[in-house]
Design brief:
Two copies of one chain form a homodimer. By secondary structure, the first copy, chain A, is an alpha+beta fold. The first copy, chain A, is built from four helices and twelve strands. The first copy, chain A, starts with a strand and ends in a 6-residue tail after the last strand. Chains A and B meet through β4, β5, α2, α4 and β11 of A and β4, β5, α2, α4 and β11 of B.
Chain lengths: ~190, ~190
Amino acid sequence: MSQRVPVELSKAYRLMNHGPTVIVTSHHGGRSNIMSAAWAMPLDFDPPKVAVVIDKSTFTRGLVEASGEFVLNIPSRALARLTVDVGNESGAQVDKFAAHGIAVAPGAIVQAPLVEGCLGWLECRLIREPHIQQAYDLFLGEVVAAWADPAVFDGAHWTMDEGGKRSIHYVAGGQFFEIGAPFHARDDKS
Amino acid sequence: MSQRVPVELSKAYRLMNHGPTVIVTSHHGGRSNIMSAAWAMPLDFDPPKVAVVIDKSTFTRGLVEASGEFVLNIPSRALARLTVDVGNESGAQVDKFAAHGIAVAPGAIVQAPLVEGCLGWLECRLIREPHIQQAYDLFLGEVVAAWADPAVFDGAHWTMDEGGKRSIHYVAGGQFFEIGAPFHARDDKS
């Protein structure tokens, strides 16, 4: 089981500000699904909003449109292979949770599940913008609850370090970068 | 001077897929400007599109709306302090290029300049979507030319490694992560 502590909503953008790849979970009508998304970002601070690209071909899309909810889960490297696998399979063909033995926990507000072992979780309510959903596969959400693993996020700041769990940043073809060393701009010479 | 080689448009998304913080440059009516943006992501593969958040308070926003163009520059750690500084100042008050001695080069297609010393550059034409620009400060663009420093991107793949130039990923308050080690998901145990 992941440890999970609440993140103040005004600080929730920090979970995604550095550009991690996310796992999108969704639930509607008794079916849950899980997919990966490298194209996700914060959109506002407070109330926090996010943007994520969800392709028309995905089973997730129907669940998100029908339920008006989704969760963005921030995986660590231990979930890298799963992140690739759930991006290559469709929930229309397979129950990916069962196929991969994915452990989940309930969210506080939305019905979509939280994936165990992640670094952070953003429960989101869809902000319906049908034109950009249709034209660009672009989905906006308001973050209504946020959580983090206290081993890597202390409530307002990442504490990821070398040797510990860190976020992963997808490139293409199964290739990722792990996030590296933290630094402060003032400590570098300009 | 940065080395700069063209990136095939169908591969341009890879420059941003891992979530780097970007520098947005713009130009209209004899004025150029430069700001930073942590909230930027790819939106499509081919033709490549991007999304970026440009706040109403920024001078950049007027230049982008008037010209219909912008450039997303991907800075390395050597530009971290500049990235913070140009995010804290407004082009309405100061010519940030002059104030910081920022070296630029012309783009191939758009009028906004390319910032020297970056890892990659995406020249973009604004896709006008007035509702989401107004409601969410969200700007979409089609990438019409892309470039990379061949020391870190070989035409289709990042070759950033430890000790070399790497992308930076902003969190808050002057704090960044540098991108870390590359890995392939199949090489990790699942």
